[in-house]
Design a protein that fits this description.
It is a single chain. With 276 residues, the protein is α/β, with parallel strands linked by helices. It has a single domain, classed as Rossmann fold, CATH 3.40.50.720. It has 8 helices and 8 strands; from the N terminus they run E-H-E-H-E-H-E-H-E-H-E-H-H-E-E-H. Strands 3-2-1-4-5-6-7-8 form an 8-stranded mixed beta sheet, with helices on both faces.
């Protein structure tokens, strides 16, 4: 039986490679989500040529209104038992606020995915959620008063902070929805355009990235992970590094950080239930 697999950030990088890796699959109908409609439609055409099934749903995860609208679209499109792969993300180089007054990295990497997902959980559409996170969350710090608005912004650390926050939020989601299998994953050190810079730093980073793993290699790993029957015990979210379960990093076990994320998550839920 074909099940729906929602893939955010499908237009480039790991998401694009994963969609192509699953193109021949008869197990999934791929629900491709990103802002770039043209790239999504080209990808969907490739998947269909390979014998797979794909649906294009352009969506904006930079605003809470866009996230709410996307969530409702997905509720109408997908059937119960779907898998959601949270893959969309950015690494901002400077502080920029969204129309909601949120720092852009926090909005895309943490707030909007939670708001979008809320509609799917309430409608009981999801059986599994895979968060493509980052090992760099070990360097994160999360301040409930400052991180959402970027008052503690750093071009190096904000990415880590927002990844840490979303990972902790997903642990609580797993507790609240024990019927949903939740996995938080460090996918590997992958060569994408995430965090691209200009100038000498950008040039140096491009040299370093030459030794990193290709997105296609990571996509094959993710395909194997998706093929597994179960990732985590009911009511829990496990942390994997590539294909191996690991203890949760110390940064995620700090009680003050956990409280800060829960405080922000509660605020986001209230904001996410508002009018579009």
């Amino acid at each position: 039986m074909t099940t729906d697999l929602i893939l955010t950030g499908a237009s480039r990088g790991i998401g694009f490679a994963l969609a192509r890796a699953l193109a021949k699959s008869r197990e999934y109908r791929l629900i491709l989500v990103a802002r770039d409609r043209a790239r999504l439609e080209s990808l969907a055409a490739f998947i269909q040529e390979e014998g797979g099934q794909a649906v294009v749903i352009p969506g904006d995860l930079s605003t809470l209104a866009g996230a709410r609208a996307l969530g409702q679209q997905l509720v109408e499109q997908v059937s119960p038992g779907a898998t959601l792969v949270h893959n969309a993300g950015i690494w901002p180089t400077h502080r920029e606020l969204t129309v909601d007054g949120l720092e852009s990295g926090f909005a895309v990497n943490h707030a909007a995915p939670l708001v979008m997902q809320q509609a799917l959980l309430e409608a009981k559409r999801l059986r599994r959620v895979l968060l493509v996170s980052a090992g760099l969350l070990v360097k994160g710090r999360f301040d409930a008063a400052r991180t959402p608005t970027g008052e503690d912004f750093s071009s190096l650390r904000t990415y880590c902070d927002t990844k840490l926050g979303f990972a902790l939020a997903m642990r609580d989601v797993a507790t609240e929805h024990p019927a949903v299998d939740v996995l938080v994953l460090h996918p590997g050190v992958v060569r994408t355009d995430l965090g691209a810079r200009t100038g000498p730093i950008g040039w140096l980073l491009s040299l370093v990235k030459r030794g990193w793993e290709a997105p296609e290699v990571c996509a094959q790993r993710l395909s194997r992970i998706l093929a597994q029957e179960r990732w985590s015990p009911p009511g829990q979210a496990r942390w994997w590094v590539e294909e191996t379960e690991q203890p949760w990093p110390p940064a995620t076990e700090d009680a003050a950080t956990q409280r800060a994320v829960r405080e922000v998550h509660a605020r986001l839920r209230a904001m996410g239930s508002g009018p579009s």
